[in-house]
């Protein structure tokens, strides 16, 4: 079973809190204890040195006759919760502020131990509880008469250390309590949006592309939600387009196939007499040409979709290509009384592009212009140069395109009502192929049309860098 990200975050956060508290309770507590121990040992050593210095002039190993000096030490011992001893070099306690060990000899006493900063323990087994012990030598005339030794129980150090740790514990708990706000922030800004995005992904995976992920934020989560919504919209639009595409292909294939099948069955059944069969055979041939044209258009679009950058670019004369393309339509133009008005800036206009595909662009644009031109009109093809680009304009003076259809003319299989009424042989792929080819060249094509006045297509190509020989 999957655990929610928010639950993992909470568990991780609690684990971090427990580990942090254990660290404070162990490592930090130990460091604090030793810090207090070192500091207290320094204070006791300073005290021992001052006491030793104050009696250097008179103490010779005996305390008799110096009650006025030792009485304040007894008060100091009570006030500081310490034990103050005077020990002679042989280990005999000459003075004990508590009065318990006077004239008591410490076994195994080693005067060299008094040189250390401090020591902990029961001081050769003489103390009832472990203590920190410091010492200072009492000297005079280059002779050591004894040692001032001060003891303080380690339990007192522990109480001081614990007193220092208590504010740390309280501070940690307060910070931990306030840091819970982070969980609330994480839940609001991360967990809930992520849950909504996950739900959206499930809906899209199940095919519900109309589902909208609702995340109202300006951060990465909001951007991700907007991206998913855009993706779903595009996928939904693509799915609808595919359905429409298949319906259009089926319709455009079914119509000529139905005609072919009907005429052939009529001839086979004898419904059409032999003397009329030639007429209907020509109709069948025309329909097969229409199917062939539709198939070639689909193959061209498929090729452009697969690899629109695989172009066979070369330097060629655009003027010559335009002239040869117009000559292709000479027959149909004579029937409709249509003439071409060609305008070139120079005798030769060199461009750098895929000659075969640009020829196809010109063929489709001229074919489209002838289809929508009125009889006894003209088609103007103009070439102009600007900077490093060559602009080509193909303009007819026909019926024009309705304003509401201008954005649809690039859609595959789109046919305007005028096209469907006047020319049943159109496939609705010509302008789609034109746009794909121009975009493959990383150029643009625009259309300007006024209903009842005509249409003009303008596209551009890169100018050739080749020097034209005059």
Structure description:
The protein is α+β, with helices and mostly antiparallel strands and 470 residues long. The chain folds into three domains: 5-160, 2-Layer Sandwich (Beta-Lactamase); 220-303, Signal transduction histidine kinase, dimerisation/phosphotransfer (DHp) domain (Helix Hairpins, Orthogonal Bundle), CATH 1.10.287.130; 311-462, Histidine kinase-like ATPase, C-terminal domain (Heat Shock Protein 90). Helices cover 54% and strands 18% of the residues. It has helices spanning 5-54, 67-80, 154-205, 220-269, 274-306, 318-328, 330-336, 355-372, 417-422, 430-440, and strands at 83-87, 92-96, 104-105, 119-121, 131-140, 143-153, 313-317, 339-343, 350-354, 378-386, 389-396, 445-450, 454-462. A six-stranded antiparallel sheet has the order 3-2-1-6-5-4. A five-stranded mixed sheet has the order 8-10-11-13-12. Strands 7-9 form a two-stranded antiparallel ribbon. A hairpin with a 2-residue loop joins β10 and β11. α5 packs parallel to α10 (430-440) and α6 (318-328) packs across α8 (355-372). The longest helix is centred in the middle third of the chain and has 52 residues, at 154-205. The two termini are 80 Å apart. The model is unreliable at 417-424 (pLDDT under 50).
Which terms would index this structure?
single chain; 13 strands; Helix Hairpins; 6-stranded antiparallel β-sheet; 5-stranded mixed β-sheet; 10 helices; Heat Shock Protein 90; 18% strand; alpha+beta; 3 domains; Beta-Lactamase; 470 residues
């Amino acid at each position: 079973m999957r655990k929610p990200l928010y639950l993992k975050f909470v568990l991780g956060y609690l684990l971090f809190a427990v580990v942090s508290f254990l660290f404070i309770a162990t490592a930090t507590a130990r460091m604090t204890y030793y810090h207090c121990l070192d500091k207290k040992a320094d204070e006791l050593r300073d005290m021992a040195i001052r006491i030793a210095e104050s009696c250097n002039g008179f103490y010779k190993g005996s305390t008799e006759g110096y009650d006025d000096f030792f009485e304040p030490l007894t008060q100091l011992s009570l006030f500081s919760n310490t034990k103050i001893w005077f020990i002679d070099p042989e280990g005999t306690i000459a003075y004990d502020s508590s009065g318990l060990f006077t004239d008591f000899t410490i076994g195994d006493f080693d005067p060299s131990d008094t040189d250390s900063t401090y020591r902990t323990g029961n001081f050769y087994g003489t103390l009832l509880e472990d203590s920190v012990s410091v010492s200072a030598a009492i000297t005079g005339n280059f002779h050591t008469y004894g040692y001032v030794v001060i003891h303080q129980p380690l339990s007192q150090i522990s109480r001081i250390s614990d007193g220092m740790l208590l504010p740390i514990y309280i501070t940690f708990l307060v910070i931990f309590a306030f840091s819970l706000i982070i969980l609330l922030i994480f839940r609001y800004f991360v967990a809930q949006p992520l849950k909504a995005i996950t739900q959206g992904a499930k809906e899209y995976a199940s095919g519900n592309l109309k589902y909208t992920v609702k995340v109202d934020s300006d951060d990465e989560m909001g951007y991700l939600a907007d991206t998913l919504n855009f993706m779903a919209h595009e996928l939904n639009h693509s799915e609808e387009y595919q359905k429409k595409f298949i319906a259009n292909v089926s319709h455009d294939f079914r119509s000529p196939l139905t005609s072919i099948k009907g005429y052939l069955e009529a001839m086979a059944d004898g419904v059409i007499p032999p003397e009329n069969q030639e007429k209907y055979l020509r109709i069948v041939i025309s329909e097969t040409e229409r199917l062939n044209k539709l198939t070639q258009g689909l193959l061209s679009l498929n090729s452009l979709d697969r690899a629109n950058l695989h172009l066979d670019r070369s330097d060629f004369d655009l003027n010559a290509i335009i002239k040869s393309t117009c000559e292709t339509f000479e027959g149909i133009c004579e029937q409709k009384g249509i003439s071409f008005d060609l305008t070139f800036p120079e005798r030769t206009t060199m461009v750098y592009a895929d000659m075969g595909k640009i020829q196809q662009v010109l063929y489709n644009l001229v074919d489209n212009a002838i289809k929508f031109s009125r009889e006894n009109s003209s088609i103007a093809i103009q070439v102009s140069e600007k900077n490093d680009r060559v602009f080509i304009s193909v303009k007819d003076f026909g019926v024009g395109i309705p304003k509401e259809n201008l954005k649809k003319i690039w859609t595959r299989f789109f046919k305007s009502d005028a096209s469907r009424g006047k020319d049943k042989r159109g496939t609705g792929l010509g302008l789609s192929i034109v746009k794909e080819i121009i975009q493959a060249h990383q150029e643009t094509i625009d259309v300007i049309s006024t209903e009842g006045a005509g249409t003009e297509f303008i596209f551009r190509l890169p100018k050739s860098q080749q020097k034209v020989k005059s």
